[in-house]
Design goal:
Radius of gyration of chain B: 27 Å
CATH class of the largest domain in chain B: Alpha Beta
CATH architecture of the largest domain in chain B: 3-Layer(aba) Sandwich
CATH superfamily of the largest domain in chain B: P-loop containing nucleotide triphosphate hydrolases
Structural class of chain B: alpha/beta
Structural class of chain A: mainly alpha
Distance between the termini of chain A: 23 Å
Radius of gyration of chain A: 20 Å
Distance between the termini of chain B: 48 Å
Strand order of the largest sheet of chain A: 1-4
Number of helices of chain A: 15
Largest sheet of chain A: 2 strands, antiparallel
Oligomer: heterodimer
Chain lengths: 340, 539
């Protein structure tokens, strides 16, 4: 029993128990539990890739990627280009992916160069890199030469809107792909399959020669160097992969949400992802695909179910507060805990 | 001063760190006005002994110590450094503990300021009293003058001072404390120029005349003999000798420090000498800028099939050589291996050429503590030679099958005590981790193996095993080995030739059967020997 608790970890155990209580309460309050599960599945799929983006960064020894908004921004630009060309459905989605990835590659590379100059301070510098890029892009959104009236302000006819609806373009393409319903629970097969595919890619990468080198560089740079690994290069690669996954992640996220959110929306994008992977059992220097999957599942299910339950029990909405407490508490917990 | 009162007496001091005994029933006493030398190799326990005397927190966090300390006739059990200071024990540190932006006076008087009353302090609290800079400066001047060192202005800022001057400020601070009865100097001359060192030693003698007891720790044996009254030699946590300075020699001290320790190890016999093979490694004028282990230009050759030992006291550059050759520390000079130039400062070049390295820093460079045994074994081979991989479409993946088989073979061959290839290396004992390090290097199929401190921090049984492994690799498989170790005993048991380093240079190349005195001389840098025995050594 003790060993079981140790292998699952106390944070996951507590959150798991809390989840069970919430589900019991939901049943007790005659809430539509099946609907809640369906929407939890969607939220797992839509946030999953953003959480997965933490892995390359942690493995390359850069810690948690608080600079995730950088990748998010490139993904958003990818979507905007796709929207500007008025592409629809899967074509629009994959075109957005293509442009997003192409932009995130150089962005991630430069980010990696930056992080190589601030060894030991990656997470702090990453946070402010993210913040600065988001702030800087606010000007770009106003001045960007996009002309599709769906995207720009109606009054004045210049500058991009704060939220751009995409449901008639490629919104929900993954969610609805092969969706089926079993016992009243809707399963977004396309969305989950896409997430699973990326998980597999990240998983398999860790068994390649480069993947092993990156892991060694992250665990112990001195050892890696003595084993003929170019540590700087591995760190840049980790930053780049993380940024690329961030770009993919936001596109998946937006197609589920049905909107592209600009301006300050990406500012805090890193925090729920960071919290989720930590909740899943990752540390600042080691993380597995399992950590990412377990984390996003626990975290997003919790968020989905806490809102209606608390509303019906207490009569008020504490879900936003709960989200802040859990995500920031999780981050604080993980960062203060000394790695063994 | 035979009749002088004893200032400090440490009796039967025993200390363990996590079951590792580092001090075994150490006795030490210092009399009033006596300069007492404390010598021993790094790791002999000098620092731990001083930490106990000063009540450093690290001692009590690790379970305290047993034994008794008597200071000034009273039992003394310091729990924190402040207690040692109030009792009258001063310490001059190897690293300076001075505030750069403060003046000499401010540093000397820090936390012991002399103050005057003023209006505010009368109204509120003594903490608001004005500093009496004039008196403080006068005191500082007096302390500096007591050292007979005029080069320091009491008003000068400490930042940017030459290290020698900082050292004097540090000492001045200690002697300015009025109740000081015992001063501990930890390697005080290590950073000084020769003339500064001479002044310092004179100052120490004068301090002793004032009746202060002095404990003098140094690696420079000639200095120790020049100023000390008595010398205590520590080796492996034990006092091996206490000598009157007039009745011993540098050679004897060096011998005592190094000692021929057998640790109950079996001796490894076999063909000690080979028919001279050709030179495989030619090192010319190698300079390595490794912190604490600088190499200041060495040239030597390694013959095919031999074990070349590198020994010497800590800090004299023996560890720098292997790290320099392997490209892990900034180096210059020329290293040729089997006719091919090895690019320095580039680990890949050395690894590709067929060199493999077992680092002295096992836990940091030797193993990935949180990685499995099997991945530890093959990681370098995967990266350097692309072995243990298989093609999977366009990708090269780790070949789980061959890695597993290799790990099983290695575990058997090196007798690694483990639950299996998937065990995390952190869970292995130190000796088994060391076997993993060597096995990882061997997994590269090296033509030349460099091992540094292969038996540091492992128990006797594992030591024997590790030495046997090296011996077997050399005698059975003909592997050429460069072995660096601070334990002369083990070098003499398996090496064909032994280089002794002193002050970053080669002090001598000796055959393993040279006398203790010869090794002692070379290690203390008393003369540059070049006795090459049956081998012709290139220098």
């Amino acid at each position: 029993m003790k060993r079981l608790i140790e292998s699952v970890g106390i944070p996951r155990l507590l959150v798991g128990l809390f989840l069970l209580i919430l589900f019991a309460l939901a049943g007790f309050q005659r809430l539509p539990v099946k609907m809640l599960i369906s929407s939890a599945l969607v939220r797992i799929g839509m946030n999953g890739v953003l959480v997965l983006a933490m892995l390359p960064s942690i493995r390359a020894g850069l810690g948690l990627n608080f600079g995730l908004p950088l990748g998010v921004i490139t993904g958003i630009v990818g979507m905007l280009v796709s929207l500007e060309l008025r592409l629809n459905g899967l074509v629009g989605f994959f075109f957005a992916l293509l442009v997003g990835i192409l932009l995130s590659l150089p962005a991630g590379y430069l980010y990696g160069l930056l992080l190589n100059r601030v060894k030991g301070e990656e997470m702090m510098v990453g946070t402010y890199t993210g913040f600065s890029v988001v702030a800087g892009m606010c000007m770009f959104w106003l001045l960007a030469p996009f002309n599709n009236p769906e995207m720009i302000w109606v009054v004045g006819g210049r500058g991009l809107r704060v939220t751009i609806p995409i449901s008639h373009r490629f919104g929900g393409v993954l969610d609805n792909l092969g969706k089926f319903s079993v016992g009243g629970i809707e399963v977004p097969v396309g969305l989950l399959a896409f997430f699973a595919f990326l998980c597999l890619v990240v998983y398999l990468f860790s068994f390649t020669r480069t993947g092993m080198a990156m892991k060694a560089a992250g665990m112990n740079p001195a050892f890696a160097r003595a084993s003929g690994v170019n540590v700087e290069k591995m760190r840049i690669l980790g930053a780049t992969q993380s940024t690329v996954l961030g770009a993919i992640g936001i596109i998946v996220y937006a197609q589920s949400l049905g909107f592209v959110q600009l301006y300050l929306a990406p500012l805090m994008m890193a925090f729920p992802a960071v919290a989720a992977v930590l909740l899943g059992g990752a540390g600042t220097s080691r993380a597995t695909v399992f950590n990412a999957i377990a984390g996003v599942t626990l975290f997003q299910t919790l968020l989905t179910i806490s809102l209606p339950v608390t509303q019906s029990v207490i009569g008020g909405d504490i879900s936003e507060v709960a989200k802040l407490i859990i995500s920031n508490g999780m981050i604080l917990y993980a960062l203060t805990r000394k790695e063994a | 001063m035979p009749s002088a009162a004893t200032v400090l007496e440490m009796k039967g001091i025993t200390k363990e760190f996590y079951g590792n005994p580092v001090l075994k029933r150490v006795n030490l006493d210092v009399k009033q006005g006596e300069i007492h030398g404390l010598v021993g190799e790094n790791g002999a326990g000098k620092t731990t002994l001083m930490n106990i005397l000063f009540g450093m927190p690290v001692i009590h966090e690790t379970g305290g110590f047993s034994g008794q300390i008597v200071f000034d006739g009273k039992e003394f059990l310091p729990r924190e450094p402040r207690q040692a200071m109030t009792a009258g024990i001063g310490m001059v540190h190897q690293e300076f503990m001075l505030i750069p932006g403060f003046s000499v006076t401010e540093n000397i008087k820090l936390n012991r300021e002399i103050t005057k009353q003023n209006l505010l302090s009368k109204l509120f609290s003594r903490k608001l009293e004005t500093l009496d800079m004039t008196t403080m400066a006068a005191h500082s001047r007096k302390a500096i003058d007591a050292l007979d060192f005029e080069g320091i202005d009491e008003w000068a800022s400490v930042a940017g001072m030459p290290v020698g001057h900082k050292q004097f400020v540090e000492i001045a601070r200690e002697i300015d404390k009025e109740n000081v009865r015992l001063l501990v100097f930890d390697e005080p001359t290590a950073v000084l120029t020769e003339s500064e060192a001479a002044i310092l030693l004179d100052a120490l003698k004068r301090l002793a005349l004032r009746g202060i007891g002095i404990l003098f720790i140094s690696h420079r044996l000639d200095e120790v003999l020049a100023i000390c009254d008595r010398v205590t030699v520590l080796r492996d946590g034990e006092v091996v000798a206490e000598r009157k300075a007039g009745e011993t020699t540098v050679i004897e001290l060096a011998e005592l420090m190094v000692g021929r320790k057998m640790d109950g190890l079996r001796s490894l016999d076999g063909p000690k000498l080979l028919e001279a093979g050709e030179d495989v490694l030619v090192v010319e004028n190698l300079i390595v800028n490794m912190p604490g282990e600088r190499v200041k230009g060495v040239s030597f050759t390694v013959k095919r099939g031999e074990i070349l030992g590198i020994g010497g006291l800590a800090g004299h550059g023996k560890l720098g050589i292997a790290n320099g050759i392997m490209g892990l520390q900034p180096a210059s000079g020329s290293v040729r291996f089997m006719g091919r130039e090895i690019r320095l400062n580039d680990p890949v070049s050395a690894l590709r050429a067929g060199l493999a390295f077992v680092s002295e820093d096992r836990r940091n460079i030797g193993v990935l503590l949180d990685e499995t045994l099997e991945d530890n074994l093959v990681l370098t081979a995967v990266q350097v030679h692309g072995r243990f991989l298989r093609k999977a479409g366009p990708f090269t993946m780790r070949d789980a099958g061959s890695i597993w088989r290799h790990a099983l073979e290695t575990i058997k061959e090196f007798d690694i005590r483990t639950t299996g290839p998937k065990q995390v290396v952190r869970r292995l004992s130190g000796g088994n981790q060391q076997k993993v390090c060597i096995a990882r290097a061997i997994s590269l199929d090296p033509k030349l193996l460099l091992v540094s401190e292969p038996t540091r921090g492992i128990d006797v049984g594992a030591k024997q095993k590790v030495l046997e492994i090296l011996y077997r690799l050399n005698r059975e498989k003909g592997l050429t080995i460069i072995m660096t170790s601070s334990e002369l005993g083990e070098l003499r048991r398996i090496c064909h030739r032994i280089i002794i380093m002193y002050d970053g240079k080669i002090a001598g190349i000796l055959p393993p059967d040279a006398s203790d005195a010869e090794f002692g001389l070379a290690m203390s840098g008393e003369r540059s020997t070049e006795r090459s025995g049956k081998h012709e050594a290139t220098h």
